[in-house]
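Input (structure):
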């Protein structure tokens, strides 16, 4: 079974200096930590220029011999280009995209510019990842996870994965998942004792995706919280990579 990190990045980080920024750096970290594959986004797409960052990610993926899978970053407020960028990402083989409302200054529950992008993503059979925070740092912008209810309700055939949740938002995130079967959970920021067990018991292992936040976060906690959880081996395999493999295969 391949271990697949569902939350990884490459590129410059504007908040403070980090050691690992390049594509080669990320491959080095995957090798060092025993992670077989990673779903990545370019920080350039988040903070600077989405189209160029997405093209960088697509090139990285195509040259990685299957180690890296690119997800686009879409800013719906760029109304002239957002859907074209998403179409280009899909044509380049990307199975999903990420939204960062807290960085791009819009809301999920009342912004009309978002609906066209989400409708297109649903029609294309793509997955959308919505991190409520990029990494576990209290000083970074944060999204209210309850806003995802509106997206899940309006686009019931869209596969939605919540990322960046910690114990402070866990109850609300779990409520969103229990209300909407098309919502999953990425684990990189979760620190809760028995959090993985609770997710599996309340929502099902088939909706949980292992993430580390590489290279912006230390990867081992992301792995160990799954590897040491008191769950069945079948559930562990799904979370560590089986569920991600299914998404990446377009299933």
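Output (sequence):
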């Amino acid at each position: 079974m391949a271990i697949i990190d569902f939350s990884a990045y490459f590129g410059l980080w504007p908040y403070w200096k980090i050691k690992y920024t390049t594509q080669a750096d990320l491959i080095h970290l995957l090798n060092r930590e025993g992670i077989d594959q990673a779903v990545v986004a370019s920080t350039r797409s988040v903070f600077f220029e989405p189209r160029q960052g997405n093209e960088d990610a697509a090139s990285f993926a195509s040259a990685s011999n299957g180690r890296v899978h690119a997800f686009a970053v879409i800013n719906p407020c760029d109304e002239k280009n957002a859907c074209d960028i998403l179409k280009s990402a899909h044509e380049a083989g990307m199975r999903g995209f990420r939204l960062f409302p807290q960085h791009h200054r819009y809301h999920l529950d009342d912004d009309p510019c978002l609906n066209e992008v989400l409708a297109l993503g649903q029609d294309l059979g793509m997955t959308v990842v919505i991190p409520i925070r990029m990494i576990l740092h209290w000083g970074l912008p944060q999204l209210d996870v309850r806003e995802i209810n509106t997206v899940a309700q309006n686009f019931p055939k869209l596969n939605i994965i919540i990322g960046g949740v910690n114990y402070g938002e866990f109850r609300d995130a779990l409520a969103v998942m229990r209300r909407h079967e098309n919502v999953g959970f990425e684990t990189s920021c979760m620190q809760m004792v028995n959090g993985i067990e609770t997710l599996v018991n309340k929502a099902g292992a088939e909706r949980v995706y292992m993430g580390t936040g590489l290279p912006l976060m230390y990867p081992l906690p992301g792995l160990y919280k799954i590897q040491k959880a008191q769950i069945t081996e079948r559930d562990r395999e799904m979370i560590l990579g089986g569920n991600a493999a299914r998404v990446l295969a377009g299933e």
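Notes: The first strand starts at residue 4 and ends at 10. Residues 4-248 form a domain with the TIM Barrel fold (CATH 3.20.20.140).
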